[in-house]
Write a structure and sequence with these properties.
Layout: H1 12-26, H2 33-57, H3 60-81, E1 88-91, E2 94-97, E3 107-109, E4 119-121
Antiparallel strand pairs: 1-2, 3-4
Helix pairs in contact: 1-2, 1-3, 2-3
Length: about 120
């Protein structure tokens, strides 16, 4: 019964994806003592569980991804503790700024056709 309560990752990459998803959920949240403790717990989990497991299995790419993710998470805490906003999120185990991807304006043109067929003017 208690085994169903906790997430059990299959390998290092699965664990990193799960931690990345959790990190992206709270990255813009207001800073509280509980959030900092939770963040430190995730950082410790990467250091003590994920990196040694990936090294033991010989997954060099996952070790590098974990180290990049660790540095991003540590910089997040430094930035947020200084009172600055963290303008971005983690994607593919790396920091991605909010303005990194281009934004496209779309204008939907409603024609005389029936149904949901509409043309898009970019």
């Amino acid at each position: 019964m208690t085994d169903d309560r906790y997430y059990q990752p299959k390998d290092a990459k699965d664990a990193l994806r799960y931690i990345e998803e959790l990190f992206n959920q709270y990255v813009q949240a207001p800073l509280t003592v509980e959030l900092v403790a939770y963040h430190q717990k995730l950082v410790k989990q990467i250091q003590e569980d994920v990196i040694p497991t990936a090294e033991r299995d010989g997954q060099t790419t996952q070790v590098e991804n974990a180290k990049q993710m660790l540095s991003t998470m540590q910089s997040w805490l430094r930035i947020r503790m200084s009172g600055q906003p963290f303008a971005g999120k983690m994607r593919h185990f790396k920091f991605e700024a909010d303005n990194a991807k281009p934004k496209f304006k779309r204008k939907v043109l409603k024609g005389r056709r029936s149904g949901g067929h509409r043309s898009v003017c970019h």
